[in-house]
């Protein structure tokens, strides 16, 4: 698998969609094709991935958290969501 410049632990971006993640494994299939497994449990062809700085991953997560918080606040203001206390509610079963 020396033909690729990606290694386990690298942070990469999938160039077609912008999906970012951490490389958790690199495998060859029965046809000899190399696949890179990311922490989202999806496999990608290495030529479609680009190694990036870890800080790019953290920026993305912070952006998502900020957007979710803002949406929740807007929904609460509009009365579409209710802030309720579930007390001692338990799961199904």
Spatial ordering of strands, largest sheet: 4-3-2-1-5
Secondary-structure element order, as H and E? EEEEEH
Helix content: 25-40%
Secondary structure tally: strands = 5
Measured by DSSP, the beta-strand proportion falls in 25-35%
SS class: alpha+beta
What characterizes the major β-sheet? 5 strands, antiparallel
The outline comes out as elongated
Organism: Methanocaldococcus fervens (strain DSM 4213 / JCM 15782 / AG86)
Protein name: DUF2098 domain-containing protein
Fold and architecture overview:
Pfam families: DUF2098. It comes from Methanocaldococcus fervens (strain DSM 4213 / JCM 15782 / AG86). InterPro entries: DUF2098, UCP037053. This is DUF2098 domain-containing protein. The structure is a single chain. By secondary structure, the protein is α+β, with helices and mostly antiparallel strands. The chain has one domain (11-78). 27% of the residues lie in helices and 26% in strands. It has one helix spanning 54-78; strands spanning 11-14, 20-28, 34-38, 43-44, 49-52. A five-stranded antiparallel beta sheet has the order 4-3-2-1-5. The mean pLDDT is 79.
